Each structure stands twice: as structure tokens, then as C-alpha cells.
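Researcher: Next entry in the queue.
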Amino acid sequence: MKKLMIDLDETICTGGYLKAVNEFLKTNYKEEDIDSYYVEDVMNDAEKERFLDYFYKNVNIYDTISLIPDSLKVIEELSKYYEIYIVTAFVDRRRIKESGIMALQKYEWIIENMPYIDPRKIILTGSKNVVMCDVKIDDKVSNLKGFGEIKLLLDQPHNQKYSLDELEKRRIKRVYNWNQIYSILVPESEEL
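Model: Structure for this entry, 192 residues:
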């Protein structure tokens, strides 16, 4: 069975970071307002420092996230064809020690919401480029470097700056939803 690496944040679930920023700033930013990978980049440096202190002491984004449509259904179906690994980064270089709490929060959310994933196939890391697999699905271009026959970039506002030509040079295909991912990875199948 081929190995499939799937990212968690902004690939399976979304919105938690943005909700935390909006709560902290008392704003109403929407995903399309943010063109940076780090949602908190809407803040100045001093605000960002205060936010990070607040965030790691008070927020579990997995209490408020939304699922990306069809993600869990498609992943469960893909598990019939692929050996699935959920690979998610938790190390924040700005807050190395404090960001450790994210590993527990991510692990608990995956266990609770994806019971068909073998817990031994949950990889919590600081660097995804060391993971060897046949297929990678992520929302961040730099996480698709390295190994992988098929590399799929889930379209998000923060990665739209990459043109299709630029992605093609990196052997990355932009995808727009989980049903499209399914049709690429299980081409002979009927639509879910």
C-alpha cells in the first residue's frame, strides 16, 4: 500500500487560529483577508508578542475549529487505498517551550475525530520534509518539498501567490477541495 501524508491545519480543519486572533484583537477578520501563512501577521510586533503569550496560555484552537468540507469522509475512504499518516507541525520557533502544548491538543483532536487512523501513524513534528511517503497533501508549499511522487497543495488564501506554472515547476498540483483530491488519488472510482 502506498503511503499518504496529510497535514492537519488548514488542510483537514480550519479557522481556529483566525478565531483566536479575532478574539484577541476584537476584530472580525475573514480567511480571505489574510494572505500570510501566519494569521497573526496582521499584528505589529508588540501585539504579536502579547498575542503569542495569550495564545499559548489560554487557547486550544481545536475547541473551535471547523472542518474543511468532506475532509474526514474522503480521508476515511482513502484509508481503504492508502496507508494514511497525519503529519502535523507543532513547533513554533518563536515559542519553542510553550508550543509543546499544541502536540497534545492536535493528538487528542485527531484521536477523537479520526478513529480510523492508527495512533502510531500520527506524526507530530517540527519539520515535515524528513517524512518519506508517496503522496503529500498540505496547504503550505514548503511542506511539500522532498519526497513524494504526488504533491497536492490545498488551495488557501495564503498560498494563492503561487502561480500554477510555479507550482508545476515544483511538481505540485493545486487542488480546491477534498472530492478533487479523491478523484486524483483514486481515479477509477466513482465520485463520493
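Model: The mean pLDDT is 94.
Researcher: Noted, moving on.
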